[in-house]
Write a structure and sequence with these properties.
This protein is an all-alpha fold. The protein is 78% helix and 0% strand. The model has no long low-confidence stretch (mean pLDDT 79).
């Protein structure tokens, strides 16, 4: 066992004995360590789907870019102006948002309160739809038993109708 361990670690001797195997193993290890599978998949993806589009200089619509340029070249001043104007906009539209939020909250509460009731009604409706009517079911069973007994007494059901005589 000790000799096998030393032989496995002795790379120069293995390289002389099996050069293709050692170089292949080293190449495979390097491929994995340098991210070869990921790079290969990216290359295949690029070949099949084409290059990804480069990110644009600005992702804002042209009208907004124009308006921002009118505010001046100083980025900090533009940022401050935008923050103040956005805060004013939020204050201005707060009543509309609260009203919208209030109606949404009311609908959610009403739906939450009615959910157990509707579930119970649905369950009762399904049970009634699938539950056989007691009188009709009992009457049908009585008739079926009577036909079976009649067929059995008429010669053990040898009337040619498979025991369904009327």
């Amino acid at each position: 066992m000790e000799a096998a361990g030393r032989a496995a670690i002795d790379i120069p001797a293995r390289l002389r004995r099996e050069p293709a195997k050692v170089l292949g193993t080293a190449g495979g290890a390097a491929f994995l360590l340098l991210g070869g599978p990921k790079r290969m998949l990216q290359g295949v993806r690029k070949a099949v789907l084409g290059e990804k589009a480069a990110m644009p200089k600005s992702m804002l619509p042209p009208q907004i870019e124009k308006a921002l340029k009118k505010l001046g070249p100083d980025g900090e001043k533009v940022r401050g102006t935008l923050e103040r104007e956005f805060a004013a906009y939020l204050d201005e539209t707060a009543p509309k948002r609260r009203e919208r939020d209030l109606s949404g909250t009311a609908a959610a509460l009403l739906g939450g309160a009615l959910l157990p009731v509707t579930k119970r009604l649905g369950k009762q409706l399904a049970e009634r739809a699938l539950d056989p009517d007691g009188f009709t079911f009992a009457e049908g069973m009585r008739r079926a038993r009577a036909r079976r007994d009649e067929a059995a007494s008429d010669g053990n059901g040898s009337n040619g109708s498979g025991g369904a005589a009327r």
